[in-house]
Write a structure and sequence with these properties.
Elements (H helix, E strand, L loop, with lengths): L1 H17 L6 E5 L4 E5 L4 E9 L2 E12 L2 E9 L5 H18 L7 E6 L5 E13 L4 E12 L2 E9 L5 H10 L1 E2 L1
Antiparallel strand pairs: 1-2, 2-10, 3-4, 4-5, 5-9, 6-7, 7-8, 8-9
Protein name: DUF1795 domain-containing protein
Organism: Trinickia violacea
Protein backbone atom coordinates (compact mmCIF):
# COMPACT_ATOMS: atom_id res chain seq x y z
CA UNK A 1 0.00 0.00 0.00
CA UNK A 2 2.87 2.37 0.80
CA UNK A 3 4.36 1.65 -2.63
CA UNK A 4 1.05 2.44 -4.32
CA UNK A 5 0.79 5.73 -2.40
CA UNK A 6 4.38 6.69 -3.26
CA UNK A 7 3.77 5.80 -6.92
CA UNK A 8 0.60 7.89 -6.97
CA UNK A 9 2.42 10.81 -5.32
CA UNK A 10 5.24 10.66 -7.88
CA UNK A 11 2.72 10.44 -10.73
CA UNK A 12 0.80 13.39 -9.27
CA UNK A 13 3.98 15.48 -9.06
CA UNK A 14 4.92 14.56 -12.62
CA UNK A 15 1.49 15.50 -13.90
CA UNK A 16 1.60 18.79 -12.02
CA UNK A 17 5.00 19.59 -13.49
CA UNK A 18 3.63 18.99 -16.98
CA UNK A 19 0.49 21.03 -16.48
CA UNK A 20 0.25 24.37 -18.28
CA UNK A 21 1.35 27.52 -16.51
CA UNK A 22 -2.05 29.23 -16.91
CA UNK A 23 -3.82 30.18 -13.68
CA UNK A 24 -6.84 32.06 -15.06
CA UNK A 25 -8.52 34.60 -12.81
CA UNK A 26 -11.21 37.18 -13.55
CA UNK A 27 -10.01 40.76 -13.15
CA UNK A 28 -12.69 43.40 -12.63
CA UNK A 29 -11.32 46.85 -13.38
CA UNK A 30 -14.11 49.15 -12.22
CA UNK A 31 -12.03 52.32 -12.63
CA UNK A 32 -11.47 51.68 -16.35
CA UNK A 33 -14.74 49.85 -17.03
CA UNK A 34 -13.87 46.30 -18.03
CA UNK A 35 -13.55 42.73 -16.86
CA UNK A 36 -11.20 40.12 -18.31
CA UNK A 37 -9.60 36.80 -17.47
CA UNK A 38 -5.81 36.90 -17.09
CA UNK A 39 -3.59 33.80 -16.75
CA UNK A 40 -1.62 35.07 -13.75
CA UNK A 41 -1.63 37.86 -11.19
CA UNK A 42 -1.57 41.11 -13.21
CA UNK A 43 1.09 43.77 -13.16
CA UNK A 44 -0.06 47.38 -13.41
CA UNK A 45 1.61 50.22 -15.27
CA UNK A 46 0.64 53.73 -16.28
CA UNK A 47 2.21 56.32 -18.55
CA UNK A 48 1.43 59.36 -20.63
CA UNK A 49 1.25 58.89 -24.39
CA UNK A 50 1.29 61.51 -27.11
CA UNK A 51 -1.46 60.84 -29.65
CA UNK A 52 -1.92 63.40 -32.40
CA UNK A 53 -0.24 66.09 -30.33
CA UNK A 54 -2.40 65.49 -27.25
CA UNK A 55 -1.07 63.89 -24.04
CA UNK A 56 -3.30 61.18 -22.66
CA UNK A 57 -2.92 58.67 -19.85
CA UNK A 58 -2.60 54.98 -20.76
CA UNK A 59 -3.06 52.36 -18.07
CA UNK A 60 -1.93 48.79 -18.57
CA UNK A 61 -2.70 45.51 -16.81
CA UNK A 62 -0.61 42.57 -17.99
CA UNK A 63 0.06 38.99 -17.03
CA UNK A 64 2.75 36.61 -18.27
CA UNK A 65 2.32 32.87 -18.76
CA UNK A 66 4.50 30.42 -20.66
CA UNK A 67 6.41 33.19 -22.43
CA UNK A 68 3.23 34.97 -23.55
CA UNK A 69 2.08 38.44 -22.49
CA UNK A 70 -1.66 39.00 -22.06
CA UNK A 71 -2.43 42.70 -21.63
CA UNK A 72 -5.21 45.25 -21.55
CA UNK A 73 -4.30 48.85 -22.22
CA UNK A 74 -6.77 51.65 -21.57
CA UNK A 75 -6.27 55.12 -23.02
CA UNK A 76 -8.18 57.72 -20.99
CA UNK A 77 -9.59 60.41 -23.30
CA UNK A 78 -10.03 64.02 -22.15
CA UNK A 79 -13.60 64.02 -23.50
CA UNK A 80 -16.28 61.76 -24.95
CA UNK A 81 -15.56 62.85 -28.52
CA UNK A 82 -16.28 60.37 -31.37
CA UNK A 83 -13.57 61.90 -33.61
CA UNK A 84 -10.97 61.66 -30.86
CA UNK A 85 -11.96 58.04 -30.11
CA UNK A 86 -11.49 57.19 -33.80
CA UNK A 87 -8.12 58.98 -33.94
CA UNK A 88 -6.88 56.99 -30.93
CA UNK A 89 -8.15 53.70 -32.41
CA UNK A 90 -6.34 54.52 -35.68
CA UNK A 91 -3.17 55.43 -33.77
CA UNK A 92 -3.16 52.12 -31.86
CA UNK A 93 -3.98 50.04 -34.95
CA UNK A 94 -1.28 51.57 -37.15
CA UNK A 95 1.28 51.71 -34.33
CA UNK A 96 1.02 47.99 -33.59
CA UNK A 97 1.43 47.12 -37.25
CA UNK A 98 4.29 49.59 -37.74
CA UNK A 99 6.18 48.17 -34.75
CA UNK A 100 6.22 44.78 -36.49
CA UNK A 101 6.67 46.06 -40.05
CA UNK A 102 3.24 44.74 -41.09
CA UNK A 103 0.19 46.17 -42.83
CA UNK A 104 -2.33 47.68 -40.36
CA UNK A 105 -5.24 45.57 -41.60
CA UNK A 106 -8.08 44.96 -39.19
CA UNK A 107 -11.50 43.35 -39.38
CA UNK A 108 -14.57 44.32 -37.45
CA UNK A 109 -15.68 42.31 -34.44
CA UNK A 110 -18.20 42.66 -31.65
CA UNK A 111 -17.06 43.18 -28.06
CA UNK A 112 -19.57 42.21 -25.37
CA UNK A 113 -20.89 44.50 -22.67
CA UNK A 114 -21.08 43.05 -19.15
CA UNK A 115 -24.74 44.14 -18.92
CA UNK A 116 -25.59 42.50 -22.26
CA UNK A 117 -25.34 43.68 -25.83
CA UNK A 118 -22.30 44.41 -27.94
CA UNK A 119 -20.22 47.32 -29.19
CA UNK A 120 -18.26 47.34 -32.46
CA UNK A 121 -14.52 46.88 -32.30
CA UNK A 122 -11.55 45.90 -34.43
CA UNK A 123 -9.57 42.69 -34.39
CA UNK A 124 -6.18 42.11 -35.96
CA UNK A 125 -3.30 39.65 -35.99
CA UNK A 126 0.15 40.80 -37.03
CA UNK A 127 3.52 39.09 -37.15
CA UNK A 128 6.96 40.50 -37.75
CA UNK A 129 10.25 41.48 -36.22
CA UNK A 130 10.27 43.98 -33.37
CA UNK A 131 12.67 45.79 -31.09
CA UNK A 132 16.35 46.53 -31.36
CA UNK A 133 17.19 42.83 -31.67
CA UNK A 134 14.52 42.37 -34.39
CA UNK A 135 13.00 39.36 -32.62
CA UNK A 136 9.98 37.70 -34.21
CA UNK A 137 6.67 38.50 -32.49
CA UNK A 138 3.01 37.78 -33.13
CA UNK A 139 0.35 40.08 -31.77
CA UNK A 140 -3.35 39.31 -31.60
CA UNK A 141 -5.38 42.31 -30.53
CA UNK A 142 -8.87 43.67 -30.09
CA UNK A 143 -9.39 47.41 -30.13
CA UNK A 144 -12.60 49.04 -28.96
CA UNK A 145 -13.75 52.47 -27.79
CA UNK A 146 -16.54 53.36 -25.40
CA UNK A 147 -17.19 56.75 -23.82
CA UNK A 148 -13.92 58.32 -22.63
CA UNK A 149 -11.92 55.07 -22.97
CA UNK A 150 -10.15 53.27 -25.81
CA UNK A 151 -9.16 49.69 -25.03
CA UNK A 152 -6.46 47.45 -26.45
CA UNK A 153 -6.65 43.79 -25.38
CA UNK A 154 -3.54 42.07 -26.74
CA UNK A 155 -1.64 38.81 -26.72
CA UNK A 156 2.07 39.21 -27.54
CA UNK A 157 4.36 36.22 -28.06
CA UNK A 158 7.17 34.83 -30.16
CA UNK A 159 4.68 32.20 -31.34
CA UNK A 160 0.92 32.05 -30.91
CA UNK A 161 -0.29 30.37 -27.71
CA UNK A 162 -2.78 27.47 -27.84
CA UNK A 163 -6.13 28.55 -29.30
CA UNK A 164 -8.03 27.67 -26.11
CA UNK A 165 -5.89 30.23 -24.22
CA UNK A 166 -6.53 32.87 -26.89
CA UNK A 167 -10.27 32.15 -26.70
CA UNK A 168 -10.28 32.30 -22.89
CA UNK A 169 -8.67 35.75 -22.96
CA UNK A 170 -10.69 37.40 -25.74
CA UNK A 171 -14.06 35.83 -24.91
CA UNK A 172 -13.80 37.02 -21.30
CA UNK A 173 -13.15 40.68 -22.28
CA UNK A 174 -16.30 42.67 -21.46
CA UNK A 175 -16.90 46.38 -21.05
CA UNK A 176 -19.11 48.05 -18.43
Amino acid sequence: MLRAFAGAAILGCALTACSPDYDWRTIMNSADGYTIDLPAKPLNDERDVDIGGARMKMKMQSAHAEGVVFAVGTVILPSDDPQLRQAVLDYLRTGLARNLGAAPEARTTQVPLAAGGMVPGLEMSVSGDAGEKREHRTIQVRLVARGKHVYQAAIIADKAPPQEQVDQFFQSFKLY
